[in-house]
Amino acid sequence: MKHSYDVLHGPMLTEKGTLMKETDNKVLFKVARSANKIEIKKAVEEIFKVKVDRVATMNYQGKKKRMGKHEGKRPDWKKAIITLKKGEKLDFVEGV
Q1: Among 22, 20, 3, 1, which Cα is nearest to 80's?
Q2: Domains and CATH numbers, the chain
Q3: SS3 39
Q4: pLDDT 10s digits, 69-78
Q5: Nearest to 21 by CA among 50, 62, 59, 61
Q6: Burial of 31 (0-12, 13-18, 19+ CB in 10 A)
Q7: In angstroms, rounded to a whole number, what is the distance separating the alpha carbons of residues 59 and 80?
Q8: Mind listing the pLDDT tens digit for each residue in 11-43?
Q9: Three-state DSSP class for 76?
Q10: What is the Cβ-side half-sphere exposure of residue 16, based on CA atoms within 13 angstroms?
Q11: Which residue from 4, 83, 13, 85 is spatially nearest to 47, judged by alpha carbons?
Q12: What is the DSSP-derived secondary structure letter of residue 37?
């Protein structure tokens, strides 16, 4: 099994994520591409000491980028939407 900090790469602080947190009690995370829903759920519960109701994941392909005549590619990545149980709360930025 992977270490919890290897599974979660960090929170995604976006406008859509903030709206989802306020209305639906959902939190967005960028996670390891090889992580499955069970590992993500265990990692969030272990690190943040909250109860997770469900996990939804999405895989994204990295965009192609050009620098003059050279073409490169950004890395592929995975996003997880964590739905917390009723009464649970998770704040990354408090007092800002």
Answers
A1: 20
A2: 4-84 (3.30.70.330)
A3: helix
A4: 999 999 999 9
A5: 50
A6: buried
A7: 9
A8: 999 999 999 999 999 999 999 999 999 999 999
A9: coil
A10: 4
A11: 4
A12: H
Q: How far is CA 79 from CA 10, 95, 96, in A?
A: 10, 26, 25
pLDDT at 1 over 80: no
- Find the angle CA(26)-CA(28)-CA(29) to the nearest 5 degrees: 140
Q: Which two tokens stand for residue 28?
A: 């967005």
| Integer angstrom CA distances of residue 78 from 1, 25, 58 | 19, 20, 6
State the Cα–Cα distance between residues 94 and 77, nearest whole angstrom. 27
Lookup: tokens for 27: 């939190």
